[in-house]
Design goal:
By secondary structure, the protein is an alpha/beta fold. The protein contains 16 helices and 10 strands. Helix 1 packs parallel to helix 3, helix 8 packs antiparallel against helix 9 and helix 13 crosses helix 16. The N and C termini lie far apart (about 50 Å). The N terminus is likely disordered.
Length: about 350
Amino acid sequence: MTAHAITPTDHVLAEVRNQVGHLTLNRPAGLNALTLDMVRSLRQQLDRWAEDPQVHAVVLRGEGPKGFCAGGDIRSLYDSFKADDTLHQDFFVEEYALDLLIHHYRKPVLVLMDGFTLGGGMGLAQGCDLRVVTERSRLGMPEVGIGYFPDVGGSYFLSRIPGELGIYLGVSGNQIQAADALYCGLADWYLASDQLAALDQGLDQLQFSDQPLKDLQNLLATLGTQVLGDAPLEKLRTVIDHFFALPDMPAIVEQLRAVSVDDSHQWALATADQLEIRSPLAMAVTLEMLRRGRHLNLEDCFAMELHLDRQWFRHGDIIEGVRALIIDKDKQPRWNPPTLAALQRQRVDQFFEGL
């Protein structure tokens, strides 16, 4: 039954059961954060299964109850830059190629976004055909918190969320739960986590027709739902659409403090406070990137993100962000510039030159 023997040191586990290829990210101690080796393993396995007539569908998940994938292994990228190595450049090129492969994969891919699904985890998941969340799911693109921007296709999938919700999620870095994920179109199905075993059982017994995607959807329909009530972002929708459509970050923060829309003033003040501790440069570049992304196709979105990446380690805020939050853990990043007021428009525009 099994495609290849699994060794405990593997950070990506692969097996085929009942014509379904199961891929498991297996670094639970690091919340399954992606290393370059993991990216390469995933790529290799997906390429193999694409050509295998015995594999009708792929299921992607993370080991352990805490997370599907909490992003990229950012520490190794920091070390690479500091050592004048090329790992941090290779990583993004290969990670984006993997994400793009999943978006265009010829066989249906089902992903279990159980637990933390952040950054690079979202990059893997958003290209999948069937995106499943549970009550433990925490989805987000938290990059601005470390002085980076939402990449891995974020300029494509965030910019296509209705209204200004994607802009809000991108520049705030906030995490959302299952109801909001469904409301925003970042997930397709909700399953209670105690149903995951039943899903596996169903997959092992599934009789595939010549429409495997439909077969998987029918199985999910017996176990889960596509709509959850009480999505917090639905209640805030008009407010978010108002503030996050403003021309630039200084205007957004200023208006959040000054203007009351509906009865959301406490939320607006808390959001302004939150934005003021993020990297001004990262937020402004994110805003510009997401607004451009609305008018670009998927490939062009990835190309834009790669263009930013090539400049970001040297000219962006990520090295300082990783130092403050991951290396020294003093949580006192010295952003450059330190405030939105001090950020010049030209500094933002420079990153997009030559696109």
